[in-house]
């Protein structure tokens, strides 16, 4: 049985009680689905582009397959968040997982690139349902001191899952560029356990019962800045899954396993650093931890700028992943902590919208830079843009 909801509020600085709570494991499994929504098909992109080379704008459309779900997440996440505040999290989460499995696997059989693109848009609605309600449930289930620890665990779990899924996708893409889409069927496997393990929190069943005095007085402005930073961060980060496969082709590594290796390094490094997020945050503070992450990501892009070998790609991917583990948990932890209880769903939707809007915009913003300046200069521009983000986050989340 699940641990009673107020059990998470008891002193438990290392989060040991959380490990015996089946809700924790269910939420972590749900989170692993979101990492698959985009990057899983990255190793298949060159093969898909070749398969549909007669399709107009096949190059851009193929790249947009990675970020197409992000557009629908960005559009629908705020509405999902508001609906979850009013009608509850559980039914939206479970229906999202079912839709995710159906839409995700459709790419394995659809006959046209346009049809696959449409299925990816539907997948985005499913991801909005999953990610928004899952994040709101974290705020509902866990007391503030443990949210940061859970978010670190969550990113560690998603990155471990990402490593496994991307490695599997790289192997499958070597057989056929359609096979990686079958990995989305994992949603069917997760659904029965999540159905049993995740109760509807009492708070979300009666909006009138929420305390309206919680949170920061300036929480709307604070959340808006966090959302802007989240969008900018993901726009830059998604250079990795959308551009690195083609950059590797340009430097003599066209094999799908090369891009799979780069993305696997990102996910493993990010998972390892995210697991230590709560510990590092306790020592460095809420502001310096993500600032350190931004500087590390900048170092990774500078490494990509400085060399044109597989070794430089590995170093860059490793640094980018390490930095991301200290940046990503900060967005939702900070936003949920600033917002009043009865607006957690809406705030989760706003941050989710920003994250996925950044993902969708990435190829639209970056591809013109690549065509105009080339890959090395684009990597350098990315590194430079991350520096003011580090300063902004350090200032916003400084100790008060």
Automatic annotation (TrEMBL):
Keywords carried by this UniProt record: Cell membrane, Membrane, Transmembrane, Transmembrane helix
Stretches assigned to the Major facilitator superfamily (MFS) profile domain: 23-400
Membrane topology: Multi-pass membrane protein
CDD domains: MFS_arabinose_efflux_permease_like
Family annotation (Gene3D superfamilies): MFS general substrate transporter like domains
Membrane-traversing stretches: 60-80, 92-110, 122-143, 155-175, 181-198, 219-240, 260-280, 287-305, 317-339, 346-366, 372-397
The UniProt record lists the keyword Cell cycle: no
Signal peptide: none
Location of the protein in the cell: Cell membrane
Protein's name in the database: MFS transporter
The species this protein was found in: Paracoccus pacificus
């Amino acid at each position: 049985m699940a641990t009673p909801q107020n059990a998470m509020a008891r002193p438990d600085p290392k989060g040991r009680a959380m490990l015996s709570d089946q809700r924790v494991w269910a939420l972590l499994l749900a989170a692993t689905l979101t990492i698959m929504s985009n990057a899983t098909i990255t190793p298949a992109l060159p093969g898909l582009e070749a398969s549909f080379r007669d399709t107009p704008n096949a190059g851009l459309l193929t790249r947009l397959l990675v970020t197409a779900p992000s557009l629908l997440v960005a559009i629908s996440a705020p509405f999902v968040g508001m609906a979850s505040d009013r009608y509850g999290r559980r039914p939206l989460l479970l229906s999202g997982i079912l839709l995710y499995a159906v839409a995700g696997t459709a790419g394995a059989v659809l006959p046209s690139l346009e049809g696959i693109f449409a299925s990816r848009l539907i997948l985005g609605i499913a991801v909005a349902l999953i990610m928004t309600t899952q994040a709101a449930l974290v705020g509902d289930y866990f007391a503030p001191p443990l949210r940061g620890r859970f978010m670190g665990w969550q990113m560690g779990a998603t990155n471990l899952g990402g490593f496994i899924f991307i490695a599997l996708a790289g192997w499958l893409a070597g057989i056929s560029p359609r096979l990686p889409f079958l990995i989305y069927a994992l949603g069917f496997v997760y659904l029965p356990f999540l159905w049993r393990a995740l109760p509807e929190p009492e708070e979300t069943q009666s909006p009138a019962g929420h305390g309206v005095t919680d949170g920061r007085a300036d929480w709307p402005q604070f959340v808006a800045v966090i959302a802007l930073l989240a969008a900018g961060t993901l726009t830059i980060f998604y250079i990795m899954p959308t551009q690195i496969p083609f950059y590797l082709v340009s430097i003599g590594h066209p094999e799908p396993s090369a891009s799979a290796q780069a993305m696997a390094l990102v996910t493993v490094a990010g998972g390892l650093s995210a697991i230590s997020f709560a510990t590092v945050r306790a020592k460095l503070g809420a502001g310096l931890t993500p600032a350190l992450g931004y500087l590390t990501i900048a170092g990774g892009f500078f490494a990509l700028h400085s060399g044109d070998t597989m070794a430089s790609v590995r170093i860059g991917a490793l640094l980018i992943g390490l930095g991301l583990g200290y940046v990503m948990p900060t967005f939702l932890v900070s936003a949920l902590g600033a917002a009043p209880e009865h607006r957690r769903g809406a705030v989760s939707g706003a941050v989710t919208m920003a994250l996925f809007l950044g993902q969708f915009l990435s190829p639209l913003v970056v591809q013109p830079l690549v065509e105009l300046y080339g890959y090395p200069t684009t990597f350098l521009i990315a590194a430079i843009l991350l520096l003011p983000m580090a300063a902004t986050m350090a200032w916003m989340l400084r100790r008060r």
